Amino acid sequence: MKLSPLSTRGLSRAQWLALVPVALIFGPLLPGLFWALAPALDAAAWRDLWFDPQWPQALRATLLSAALGSALALGMTLLLASWHYPGTLWRTLQRRLPLLLALPHAAFAVGLFFLLAPSGWLARGVAQLVGWVSPPDWITVQDPYGLSLALALAIKESWFLLWVLAALLGEQQVSRQMVVARTLGYSRAQAWRLILWPQLLPRLGWPLAAVLAYGLSVVDMAIILGPNTPPTLAVLVWRWLTDPDAALQARGAAASLVLLALLLLAAALARGLWHWRQRRRSDPDGLRQATAAWQGFKLHVPLFLTGYAVLAVLLLWSLAETWFFPALWPDSLSWQSWRTADWAPFWTTLWLAAAVSLLCLPAALIWLEWGPQRLNAALYLPLIVPAMPLVAAQYAALLNLRLDGTVVGLVWSHLLWVLPYMVLTLVGAYRAFDARLLVSARALGCTRLQACLRVKWPLLVCPILATFAVGFAVSVAQYLPTLFAGGGRFVTVTTEAVALSAGGNRRVLAVQSLLQIVLPLAAFVLAALIPNWLARHRKGLR
C-alpha cells in the first residue's frame, strides 16, 4: 500500500496544497490589517479618542453589555446542564436548539424589540390587566447602559453555548464519569461541581471567548437594541471608519485596537481567576449530598419561550393591517405586506450565501483531510477576535485591490467568517470517523482522494450537509462585511432589516426579519431531509 509521502521536516506536499485555499482567504487580511490600523500609530488619534465626549459612555455601555451578556449566557448554560443532564429534558433541549440557532442575531433583536418596547407585546399584555391606554414612559430598549442589549446577547449566546456543551457531553468518557459518580451516591450537583465542570470549563474557554468578542464588536444588534446617543463603542467605530474624514478614520482605528485590548484583558483575567480557583480547590471529602429542591426550576421554559415569542410577534406584525396600543392582537390580518415586499434583498442573500457555502465546503474538507491540524487555532481567530479590526482590514485590502463594491470582493469578505465556523462544525465528526475504513479503501487500490470520494465523505454526508447549513446561516447573518465590502451596492435581508429598524414601517421590518429567518431555517431542513432521501434504500446509513 502506497501512502502519501510525509516530510519529516515542515509540511508535506498535500499539506501545502491544503493551505492554498486558506491562504487565498486569509492572505489579503495581513496587509489589510497594516493599512487599516496604521493610522492608529499616530498619537493624535489616541488623543482625539480620549477627549471625544462620546467615548466614556460608549465604552461603559460596551463593557456592561458584553460582560453582562456573556456572564448571563454562561450562567444559564451551567445551570441548565447541572439541573437537567442526563435526562429526557436534556434530550428535549438538544432537539429544540437547531430551530433557535437558526434565528439570525439581527432578526432576533428585531423580535425582542417588538416584545420589550414600551408599546411592545409584553406591555400590551400588562395593559390588559392594569388598564393602560397609552404606552408607559419607560426605557425598556435602547437604554443608555445597554441592558436590553445584554439581555438579548445572553439569551442568544446561551443557545450557542448549550450547543457546544451538548457536543462535549456527547463524548462517552464524560457520560461514563457522570454514571460512575451517580452510582457512588453523589448528587447531580456534586457530580457536576467536583468532576465534570473542572474538565469542561477549560474546553468552553474558546467558545466563551467567541461570545465575548461578539458582544464587544456587535453592530447590528447594538443598532436595534443598544443606546443611541452615544451608541456602543463598536457602532461608534463603524461610523468613524466609514467617515471620509481621515482624522475620524484614525480615531476609529485606535478604537478598534481598544476593542481587541479589552478582549485580551478579559481573557487574561479569566485565565488568572481560573488558576487561582484551581489552586484553592480542595479534594472531594466523600460526603454525599441530597439534590436541592430548587434544581427542579425549569429555566429552559422562559429561555425557549422567548425564542418562540420572537417568531410569533414577527409573524403577527408581518400580517397586521392595523394594530394600535393597547390591543393585544391586530385588528385585522392581511397578506398585503408580503405581496408588496421587496424581494431583491432575499434573492441577493440567497445567491450570496449559497456561493459562499459552496466555496467554503470543499476548502473545509480539504483542510480537515490534508491540512496541518496544529494550525486549527489560527483558523479560528476570526471567531474569537473582535470583528471590527478584521472588517476594517478586509475593507482596506479591497480598496487597495480595487475590489470594493464587486461580487468577488463581497464573496471573499464572507469567506473569512464562514470557513472557521464550517471547520469547527465538521471537525468533531471528522475525528470520530473510523480510520480503518479509509485504510481498507487504500488497501484495495484507491488513492487518498478516491477513498474520500467513495467511502469517507459519503459516510459523513449528514455532518457535511449540516456544516453546509451552518455556513449558509453564518453568511446570511453577516452585516458588517456586507456593508463594507458591498459598498452599498448589495442589499441583503440583514442589512435591510437593520436599516428599517431605525424608524421604518414595522410591517415591512417584520417581513424582512422573517425572510432572514426563513433562509437558514430552510438550509437546516434540507440538511436533515437530504440524507434520509439519499439513504432511502440503505437503512444502515439513516
Question: What layout of secondary structure does this protein have?
Answer:
Blueprint: H1 13-26, H2 29-37, H3 43-51, H4 55-84, H5 88-101, H6 105-116, H7 121-130, H8 147-169, H9 172-183, H10 188-203, H11 205-217, H12 220-225, H13 233-241, H14 246-280, H15 300-319, E1 320-322, E2 332-333, H16 336-339, H17 344-370, H18 376-379, H19 381-384, H20 387-401, H21 407-432, H22 435-443, H23 448-459, H24 461-477, H25 480-486, H26 493-500, H27 506-534
Antiparallel strand pairs: 1-2
Overall mean pLDDT stands at 87
Unreliable runs:
1-8
Q: Which of globular, elongated, flat, extended, rod-shaped describes the shape?
A: globular
Largest sheet: 2 strands, antiparallel
Percentage of residues in strands: under 5%
- Residues in helices, as a percent range: over 70%
Radius of gyration: 25 Å
Count of discrete alpha- or pi-helical segments spanning 4 or more residues? 27
Provide structural commentary.
This protein is mostly helical. It has helices at residues 13-26, 29-37, 43-51, 55-84, 88-101, 105-116, 121-130, 147-169, 172-183, 188-203, 205-217, 220-225, 233-241, 246-280, 300-319, 336-339, 344-370, 376-379, 381-384, 387-401, 407-432, 435-443, 448-459, 461-477, 480-486, 493-500, 506-534; strands spanning 320-322, 332-333. The protein is built from 27 helices and two strands. α6 (105-116) crosses α15 (300-319). Residues 1-8 have low confidence and may be disordered.
